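About this split. The held-out portion is used to measure sequence recovery: a designer receives only the structure tokens and must propose an amino acid at every position. Recovery is the fraction of positions where the proposal matches the reference. Here is one held-out target exactly as it appears in the evaluation file.
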């Protein structure tokens, strides 16, 4: 990635994080594009060059995580598939990558804010779109690793669907538990159960 592309990626990530943080802290309806742009140190026009809405900016944070999972699956091709999936997923959801790792973050308030934010119908639609794109990219990465064909083989699509389901289930369970069970712990457990064939508990 060249310097220009790297700066664009950094700006996009900064806007996405600012949108997420402000929506969690204030509620989505109380955040304006101008607020997000100011928090990211850019102009509102720059925001509009990257995103069409606040919801898209927020959903991009999750999308980028999942796209990095797909990128990681293309590395270390000799590694067993589910070992590679587990490593890729847990790297993206490690404790040091979460909001709680940022100085000054009140974990309980953050979790409550995320719950409220995710209840917004406008954001739910954006998250569904982001999830579909991420699933397609993960399926392509699985197909590359396994020598399967996206057009003719069900396997890469099935694996990608399972990975996204495990991620979504872990995040939802993290938010519903009190106190919240760490997402990384839930993901590690869920992926291990899937790799073992989902035996009855």
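Reference sequence for scoring:
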């Amino acid at each position: 990635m060249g310097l220009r592309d790297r700066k664009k990626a950094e700006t996009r990530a900064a806007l996405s994080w600012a949108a997420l943080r402000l929506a969690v802290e204030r509620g989505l309806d109380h955040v304006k594009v101008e607020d997000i742009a100011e928090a990211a140190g850019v102009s509102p026009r720059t925001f509009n060059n990257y995103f069409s809405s606040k919801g898209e900016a927020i959903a991009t944070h999750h999308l980028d995580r999942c796209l990095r999972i797909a990128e990681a699956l293309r590395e270390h091709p000799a590694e067993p598939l589910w070992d590679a999936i587990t490593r890729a997923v847990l790297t993206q959801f490690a404790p040091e990558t979460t909001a709680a790792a940022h100085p000054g973050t009140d974990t309980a308030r953050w979790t409550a804010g995320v719950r409220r934010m995710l209840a917004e119908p406008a954001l739910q639609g954006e998250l569904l779109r982001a999830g579909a794109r991420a699933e397609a990219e993960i399926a392509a990465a699985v197909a590359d690793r396994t020598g399967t064909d996206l057009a003719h083989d069900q396997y890469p699509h099935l694996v990608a669907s399972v990975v996204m389901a495990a991620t979504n289930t872990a995040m939802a369970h993290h938010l519903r538990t009190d106190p919240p069970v760490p997402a990384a712990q839930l993901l590690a457990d869920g992926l291990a159960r899937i790799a073992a064939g989902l035996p009855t508990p």
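Annotator remark: The longest helix spans residues 121-146.
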